[in-house]
Amino acid sequence: MLDPVIAAASVIAASIAVGFAGLGPGLGQGNAAGLAVEGIARQPEAEGKIRGTLLLSFAFMESLTIYGLVVSLSLLFANPFVK
Amino acid sequence: MNTSLYLSEVSVGKHFYWYLGENSFHGETLLVSFFVLLAIILFSVLGTGKLSWIPLQFQNFVEFVIEFIESIAKTQLGESFYREWTSFIGTLFLFIFFSNWAGALIPWKLIELPEGELAAPTNDINTTAALALLVSLAYFYAGFKAKGIGYFKRYISPTPILLPINILEDFTKPLSLSFRLFGNVLADELTVNVLSSLVPLLIPVPIMILGIFASSIQALIFATLAASYIAESLE
């Protein structure tokens, strides 16, 4: 049976996990995108290379958010504390 | 437990089980992965069936794909090692790319299953964990083949103090590879599902396009990371 305390705690923990996991990568991606725009403005002919590197590093930062999402999904859909 | 599922037709963690003796298999994942395998075989057979000196349209496209994969391998592994590993990295790239796009582009919801639903095989963590473990095996193999037993020297490479961190890295590499791919594919499907349960028309389309773009980037990332891990143990 479902323990309401565990259910409530899991839902709150899931939302906190996604929220905080989004915080850091958001700052990082903003920083990276700003610097990339600066680089393109200074050297427009390097745009292709900068775009490729930017997308690749975005995906790395994104994966940190995704870790938080995986934790929260496992809390919501595959909770190990619910029998 | 399942009250949170009523909000939309999200079936995370529900599978269409096949049983073989004691073991159970996720049928929907296997079905779509065999579909993806067939698609890749068809793609390569059609592309290389009638090779001509001056490539025609489809052969030209397949050659472009192969050159793209070679460029991934070459930028990470360097000129001297890349030919040996191009096939492995290309297999990973093509399988992940085809399965992500098969999940995103083909309307699998039209086919009803008794439980679970057909989707990209990479939204099952077992698939991505298997792919990530293959990468682990590959870089151990590459390191042993290049250096023999001296491969273990990298565990104490800057100083012996870093030994636990270096050992831990062998576990975090497959973990992060598998979680990254699994989470990205599942997150795309979840956002599309939730949005289309709120507004069924037009609104989810930009998210779907973003998902198609992001999933192709994830295939590229997985292949690039596999190549760079192999390069790390070769150097």
Topology (elements, then pairings):
The complex is a heterodimer of chains A (83) and B (235).
Chain A: H1 4-42, H2 47-77
Chain B: E1 17-20, E2 23-26, H1 27-48, H2 57-77, H3 82-105, H4 125-147, H5 163-198, H6 204-234
Antiparallel strand pairs in B: 1-2
What does it look like?
The complex is a heterodimer of chains A (83) and B (235). Chain A is an all-alpha fold and 83 residues long. Chain A has a domain of 54 residues: Up-down Bundle (F1FO ATP Synthase), CATH 1.20.20. Chain A contains two helices and no strands. The longest helix of chain A is centred in the first third of the chain and has 39 residues. Chain A is rod-shaped and about 60 Å long. The model of chain A has no long low-confidence stretch (mean pLDDT 87). Chain B is mainly α and 235 residues long. Chain B has one domain. Chain B contains six helices and two strands; from the N terminus they run ββαααααα. In chain B, strands 1-2 form a two-stranded antiparallel sheet. Classes of the chains: A mainly alpha (83), B mainly alpha (235). The interface between A and B is medium-sized, with 19 and 19 residues.
Characteristics of this structure?
heterodimer, A: 83 residues, mainly alpha, 2 helices, 84% helix, B: 6 helices, 2 strands, 3% strand, disordered N terminus
Secondary structure class of chain A reads mainly alpha
Oligomer: heterodimer
For the residues shown, what is the average pLDDT of chain A? 87
Order of helices and strands of chain A: HH
Strand order of the largest sheet of chain B: 1-2
Alpha plus pi helix count of chain B? 6
- The CATH architecture assignment of the domain at 24-77 in chain A turns out to be Up-down Bundle
**Poorly predicted residue ranges of chain B:** 1-8
Strand content of chain A: under 5%
Provide the CATH top-level class of the domain at 24-77 in chain A: Mainly Alpha
Span of the ends, CA to CA of chain A? 7 Å
CATH superfamily of the domain at 24-77 in chain A: F1F0 ATP synthase subunit C
Shape of chain B: globular
